[in-house]
Every structure is written in structure tokens, then in C-alpha cells.
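ESCALATION

Customer reports they have been waiting on this structure for their group meeting. Please prioritize. Original submission:
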Amino acid sequence: MEIPDPSSRALSFDTAAARYAASRPSYPPALFDAVEELAGRPLTGARVADVGAGTGLATARLKARGARVVAVEPGEGMAAEFRRALPDVPLVRGDGNELPLASGAFDFLLYAQAWHWTDPARSVPEALRVLCPGGALALWWNDVDTSVPWIAEQDDRIRRFFGADAIPAHPADVRGLPTGLGLAERRVPWSRRVSLGTHLANLGSHSAFLVLGEDGSRAFLSEERERLTGLFPGGTVEERYVVGLSVAIR
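Update from on-call: job pushed to the front of the queue and completed.
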């Protein structure tokens, strides 16, 4: 199955911003504890830029920790959803390849599931420019926990549906993690319980499904509903994740 280029996939979220906000998993408190530990400084009172902020899932958690957050988001639809959810948080339009931010102005530069949409040849120098001395670049992704049998089986079905070339076997293959910055890494397991409908909406909000459109995705998601209804007759699904966190100090 042919999948459109990365730029098309990155902007595909604008077509489903409300669904994204309602169904996508957020992040556990332990993740932000790990960010502070690896960065060697607290989020409370820190100047933080959340790049590729989307609908504000990470921004909301950062704000709750007492951080002074500025959000950066390229997509019009996602930015509109962000403003509805967090009207008091400053939001600027832009992306990690050319940050619309002042040099040396931030203690933390964070990418919550967004770094892989950047070109590291451009985004790494931009990150170093924007961070103050001793500031931290933090990148993280919510990965499904494939040690859980039903999740591994679903993940395999998704990869077979789209093809090996479209979705690499290992998430790190597409992340372009910066080199030469002395990254410290941490894995943070967590889970959430959601309705079957929310689980399927979450799947459908991923870029590979969005670029196919509803017609292209309908058959796969309908078959998943049938499979999972038998597995979770009560209609509640426990999604398990492992957040992969990487932190570098400027």
C-alpha cells in the first residue's frame, strides 16, 4: 500500500483535530518526573517550549506542573483545537525546523511525539539556539507495549495492512534522534482504560490511517471492532504503553 510523503502525513492531523484531542493518550506523571531527573532541574517555574504541541495534550500536563509554557504548532486545525482547550497558553505557528522563538530563551525544549516530523540537520541547530546554557532538549513517544499479546497481534495486523515499507518494524527507525548530544534515555511504562470506541478512534487518528481517509480505513477498523468485542466483552480496553524518553543538555 502506497503511503503519502511525510509532509502530507504531518499535516493530516488537521483533518481530525477534535478526534485526536478526544481519543489520543496523554502522558503519565512519572514521565515528567523522569524529564526533571534527567534534566537536573524542575519544570515548576521553568520556561518551556512545547514544539509540535498539537491539541495540547503535553502542554496541559506541563502547565499543571507549574511550567511557563509557550506552544509551537504548524497545523491550523490542531492549533484551533489547542486554543479551545488552553486559551490562556501562548501559541505561535511554526515548526521545529525554523522555530519562531528567541535565542537562549528557554530552559526546556520539548517534543511530545513530534521530533520525527523534523529534519535533524535543521532542528538540532534550532534547538541549541533556543535553549539557554544548561537547558534541556526532551523528546518522547508513546509506544504501544507489544509485550502484551493482544497489542502485539494488533500491531502486527497494522503493519501487514500498510506494508513493511510504510511502517518500520521499530519506531526508532524513523525518529532521527540527534547524535553527538549525549542523550540520556528512560522508558516509562503506563496504561489507561478506555472504551472500545475510544480505542478505535485513537487508532484511526494516526497519520497512516488519516491519509487513507475514512473509506480506506473503514474495513480495517470494523474488523478490529469485531475482534476486540470478543476479547473485551465489557467494552473497556486497557491500552498499555511504554514512553520512550530521550534528554540532552545544552
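Sent to customer with the following note: DSSP finds nine helices and seven strands in the chain.
Escalation resolved.
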